[in-house]
Amino acid sequence: MAKWDYDGPILEIENLSISFFTRMQEIPAVMDFSCTVQPGEAMGLVGESGCGKSTVALGVMQDLGVNGKVVSGTIKFKGRDLNEMSAEELRDLRGSEIAMIYQEPMASLNPAMKVGQQLAEVPMIHEGASKEAAWDLARQVVEDVRLPDPERILSSFPHQLSGGQQQRIVIAMALMSKPSLLILDEPTTALDVTVEAGIVDLVKALGVKYGTSMLFISHNLGLIMDVCDRLCVMYSGEAVETGSIKDVFDKMQHPYTQALFRSIPLPGADKNTHPLVAIPGNFPLPHERPNGCNFGPRCDYYQDGLCNISDLSMVTIDGDDRHESRCLRIPDIDWDAPIAVAIEQESAELGDVVLKFDNLKKYYEVSANALFGSSGASKVVKANETLSFDAREGETLAIVGESGCGKSTLAKVLMGLETATAGSIQMHGEEIGAVPIQDRDTETVSSVQMVFQNPFDTLNPSMSVGRQIIRALEIFGIGDNNSERRAHMLELMDLVKLPREFADRMPRQLSGGQKQRVGIARAFAGDAKIVVADEPVSALDVSVQAAVTDLLMEIQRKERTTLLFISHDLSIVRYLSDRVMVMYLGHVVELGTTDQVFSPPYHPYTEALLSAVPIADTRVVKKRIVLDGDIPSAVNPPPGCPFQTRCRWKSEVPGGICDTEVPPIQTLSNGHQLKCHLTEEILETMEPVIKFAAE
Amino acid sequence: MLIFLIKRLGVMLLTALCLTFVVFFLTNLYPNLEKVAKLEGTQRMTDAQVATFLERNGYTQPVFTRYGEWLGVLPGFTYTNDEGKVTGRCIRRGVEAATAPVRCGVLQGDFGWSVVFKDNVGPIVWKRLGLTGKLMLTVLLVMIPSALIIGVLAGMREGSRLDRFLSTFSIATTATPEYVSGVILIVVFSSRVVDLKWFKGTATSAMEDANLGNFTLPVITIALYGMGYIARMTRASMAEVMTAQYIRTARLKGVSFPNIVLRHALRNALIAPFTVIMLQFPWLLTGVVIVETLFNYKGFGWLLVQAAGNNDIEMLLSVGIVSVIVVLVTQLISDIGYVYLNPRIRIG
User: Fold this and answer.
1) From B249, which residue of chain A is nearest by alpha-carbon distance?
2) How many helices (H) and strands (E) does chain B have?
3) Cα separation of A31 and A43, whole Å?
4) What is the pTM of this model?
5) CA triple A239-A196-A105, angle to 5 deg
6) A451 DSSP β-pair partners
7) Chain A residues inside the 8 Å CB shell of B267
8) Tell me: the pLDDT tens digits for A364-408?
9) Beta strands A68-77 and A80-81: pairing type?
10) Helices A193-210 and A604-612: crossing angle, nearest 10°?
11) Least CA distance to B347: which residue of chain A?
């Protein structure tokens, strides 16, 4: 089947409903969903996990598995209904006319096939190309996705590439036969921000070059704004608002969209003066959806007798470009009303220094080959290099950096899971850096605790929630008997705002946010003085993130805990931390208060990092700095400044000392520290990366 | 790679040494030696006669000395009787004492004397191993392809009718031990009960001249048992691979189903069963005991039974060495093959 020409929209979805059928019941995943993608247009689908955005994508691909089925509605691709196509016709279409890019690049490439083979397969199937022609095309497309040394890339296996390179290969694979429609399902979620920025740039450029229409699925509003022309906000299986980026971002007409924007930390939000507004309640399960408006139970504008009566349909907003919303009270709501300011909090006063890192070093020795013994010389991974900083009581110190920068190693050494190679960590003047956790006394253990990234994996699935907290209390030696501990556990449940009945529930009965609250309760069980929060909200949905973050802040304020907040999400860091430490390849490259770090002068790496963060605000103007290449390996770090291989300011330093000398720490005004060779005069010339357009 | 191989060989030698010493120690306990003496002499030997016999043949030396002699690191035991005639470990019948070598052990390539077969151990082991090798190879040729085909067919569409049917079949064959399936097969295909008489119920003639008539039943008996197991492993691995995201990628780039299975899934699905297949070799080596006895095929399993039943010390030791070598060599092949199948692993 040749590609056919069609003048109308590339993709027209009308009143699509998709259900999954289990033995027990029918679970509707998508209901009454409509959207249109014009040629060359990029359409964003945004929503929280479980809202059905991926199901829509798979519906377009007609790959819903054994249980999924399109119940009603049509999906027209270039005027032809995909639902009525035979398996044969669909196979012709997939990969040649419609291509898909996935969330996990590593998982979506075949580990046992060479990259070139996987790429060349596409034209060989669809165009009957010869092997040589297919490989030539593969080489060309690999160059198009800006990968260096295509020949080497084509003959390597997926595991030999970095995450960013893998995702470029997946994109190359999708572009091999110049499809009309590209579906991107969270293409950058698994990647670091600077890598993400590169991929996003690439996708945009290729969209223009090949004239491809895109369906871009993401939970990140900032990314959608960067990439798309229009977007569609989904909630619980329905589209709730759709329109152009400008209309939806600036003149939103649905309470869910509004709530979503209020729960993400945009520049200007601050934990004390402008706290985030979390969306109350939980996402309804597919078989527990309420009557009428699905968002009703969590909506501030809910009106009994109106919103919960019958199913709602999309209403067109007059005056805007194809702007629609699924709300009955659009005219009644004052959309411009300012956010009801939550109680303004006193910023907590900082106490004494409780934690002091002094020239901490952690090196790992790895044998060149882990499986077959130490054949070859062993190598040293320098995970942490000369870290010196301190943290005060009641302070939130954020540790920022991309994967592999050594922030998790730092946490491990502090926790005692690893011991320091050199240097010291002092807690209340007591040396703990060289003491492994099994040799620490109970008090030390209970006063340094951790909240983990993934609440789904860190709770024991076969033990009730309350029991797990009591277990922590037992270990910390709190309470004399079981009933005392149980009482204390219930208090902890109150502290993290979980209903007391939840104590007897099993972890699987809890949502992600609730599980993370249990994790927090467990960390605070022994009156922890220092809590290391390792990406505590990155696995959670946007609307839940705000609630969990605020809870953490509130407990911290109450208990005067020192919080080490490890994150790669600069928006949230800016929102909640007092001081920020930026790490790169095991080095602290910048350390200062939040304001110092987020405004110039920057360390060149911080500058790139800030520019890479997508911000969901149409008023923000960003300077685009895309870092070339990958993070160098910690096994073989570059000589001199760790960042010199990707630094855009390198030419400003005379004498090429970046290549040879590790820069000293410069202390600017008010204790703002930078590890850079740039002189103060040049640093002064730096412009802010994020600016608000003139209002 | 070379270092890896040398290391593996070292491990193999060490294991062989430990294992043979354990066997040596156990077979050289006094009651066992008494048995040897009575087998060599007469059943009605008195205790004193037994003691003399053992002393004259060097069985009373310390166990380490005797183990050293067997290994060939110590000079062989000699005994000069009252008439001045020298007999000893290294002096075989019909050989002059003066011309006999001083040391005769494994290191000299001499695996000893079998008291049961009244012959040198080496040639016997080689001959029986060859016969079993023939049986094993035929079994593998039948078993592995059919097991993999069944496993892949069952696993490619998990839960389908084909999957259910093949899974039931493989569970049934694995659950039936050889001594049951062998008997059933003999009854059905070679006895007068069903009157098919397609194949012979004995494989004795297959030792000289294997053909479809006399070799089919023993091969099928072993293959059926092992096949179900490998097929189940392959099915599980295949089913898992078929749900992997890269299979979805392949599907959504328009690869046809047969090509998905053959080009994308197969190599990944074979990683897990490969180890299992390699583990089948040692199992086959001892697993043939029952089938060789059942079909009267005088191979390695049969030899093992004979040697163990009569405390044929040096034969048992050689059998032990062969087993160690077979186990470790197959595991070595398995490790190397694994690297080929799974590009994420490289031998440095």
Assistant:
1) A108
2) 14, 4
3) 19
4) 0.77
5) 80
6) A533
7) 112-113
8) 876 554 444 444 556 777 788 888 888 888 888 899 888 778 888
9) antiparallel
10) 50
11) A372
Give which of A191, A456, A668, A157 is closest to B342, Cα–Cα. A157
- Supply A146's token pair: 């800006």
Percentage, residues of chain A above pLDDT 70:
95
| Span B33-89, pLDDT tens digits | 887 777 777 777 788 888 888 888 788 888 888 888 888 888 877 777 777 777 777
B251 to A109: CB separation less than 8 angstroms, yes or no: no
Q: Name residues whose C-beta falls within 8 Å of residue A517's C-beta, 6 or more positions apart in sequence.
A: A496, A497, A498, A548, A551
Find tokens 């970046």 and name the residue. Answer: A658
Q: Is the Cβ–Cβ distance between A446 and A476 less than 8 Å?
A: yes
Among the ranges A20-29, B240-249, B271-280, which has the highest mean pLDDT value?
B240-249
Q: Which two tokens stand for residue A403?
A: 């994967």
Q: Is A647 left (phi over 0), alpha (psi -120 to 50) or beta?
A: beta
Tell me how far apart the alpha carbons of residues A501 and A99 are, in angstroms, rounded to a whole number: 48
Nearest to B269 by CA among B139, B140, B149, B161: B149
- pLDDT value at residue A1: 47
How many angstroms separate the CA atoms of A199 and A205, rounded?
10
Tokens 């040749």 correspond to: A2
Partner-chain residue, chosen from B3, B253, B264, that has the shortest CB–CB distance to A99: B253
| DSSP-assigned beta bridge partners for residue A403 | none
Q: Is A486 exposed, middle or buried, given 0-12, 13-18 or 19+ CB atoms closer than 10 A? A: middle
* Contact in structure between A213 and A178 (CB atoms under 8 Å): no
Residue of A nearest to B266 (CA): A112
Q: Do B246 and A159 touch (CB under 8 A)?
A: no
B252–A100 C-beta distance less than 8 A: yes
Q: Tell me the H-state helices in A268-309.
A: none
Rounded-to-integer distance, Cα B104 and Cα B89, Å? 8
Which segment of A415-424, A560-569, B33-42 scores lowest on mean pLDDT?
B33-42
How sure is the predictor about A346, in pLDDT bands with cuts at 50, 70 and 90?
low
Which among A104, A112, A122 has the least Cβ separation from residue B267? A112
Please give the helix or strand (H or E) that residue B228 lies within, else none: helix B212-242
Tokens representing residue B146 in the block: 């059919």
Task: Verify whether the Cβ–Cβ distance A112 to B251 is below 8 Å.
Answer: no
Mutate to test the interface with A, among B8, B157, B253, B345 (most CBs of A within 10 A): B253
CB-CB neighbors (< 8 A) of A159 in chain B: 343-344
User: How close B120 gets to chain A, by Cα (Å)?
Assistant: 40
Location of structure tokens 């009569």: B310
pLDDT digits (tens, 9 = 90+) for B209-252: 777 777 888 888 888 888 888 898 889 999 888 888 888 888 88
A610/B249 Cα distance (integer angstroms): 33
Query: Any idea how long chain A is?
Result: 695
Residue range A334-348: average pLDDT? Answer: 67
In chain A, residues with a C-beta closer than 8 Å to the C-beta of B264 are 110, 113
